[in-house]
Write a structure and sequence with these properties.
The chain has about 190 residues and is mainly alpha-helical. The chain is built from nine helices and two strands.
């Protein structure tokens, strides 16, 4: 339902912010079943009353599917991925295959995460094993192509690991990354 916030028709309405807030409220009420929040209910009821004439046509899929249009716009607006129309179907198929919940339960953040994973899966990854300062073996410069599924799995595990790092562990890892002397990694560290 959140995709409605990004549809073309909503962008031209003066009550856009109220409809976006109403949509977020409805999603919160739906996903937090059993949660009692009278203030949220009162606000949502007031917003429904205030914008019902503008909101209701957006939900009607007979003329234009504003949900699909909004979803497409949402994906295309991510500046890191820069999704093109020609790649939309492929990205959508990837997202469908990698989302755990049904479409109605997808969140904005989980969709954009899978979109970024899709983009990463397109990049052929080449890793070069750099010799360790403690390693005297000079034949350690072999190039390995890592399959994208393995990389996605490692990426997810690494993100989880980062959440539990202590400051000392993080510094040690950054030091190890510097020792790899990979230009793109050094640029990120120097930001």
């Amino acid at each position: 339902m959140w995709a409605i916030k990004y549809c073309d028709k909503l962008q031209n309405l003066s009550c856009k912010d109220k409809i976006c807030r109403l949509t977020d409220n409805i999603i919160t009420i739906y996903t937090e079943v059993g949660a009692k929040n009278p203030a949220l209910m009162v606000e949502t009821d007031g917003l429904i009353t205030e914008v019902r004439f503008e909101f209701t046509p957006l939900l009607n899929c007979e003329e234009t599917n504003n949900f699909e249009n909004g979803f497409r716009n949402y994906l295309k607006n991510d500046p890191n991925v820069n999704l093109q129309d020609a790649d939309y179907e492929e990205a959508l198929n990837y997202i469908r295959q990698h989302m755990e919940a049904g479409v109605g339960l997808w969140t904005e953040s989980s969709v954009i995460e899978q979109l970024k994973n899709w983009k990463l899966s397109l990049i052929p990854v080449v890793t070069q094993n750099q010799p360790s300062p403690h390693d005297n073996n000079t034949n350690n410069h072999e190039v390995n192509v890592v399959d994208s599924q393995s990389l996605t799995s490692k990426h997810t595990k690494a993100k989880e690991r980062i959440k539990s790092l202590t400051m000392d562990e993080a510094r040690e890892i950054l030091d190890d990354l510097c020792d790899l002397r990979i230009d793109s990694v050094l640029n990120i560290i120097l930001k």
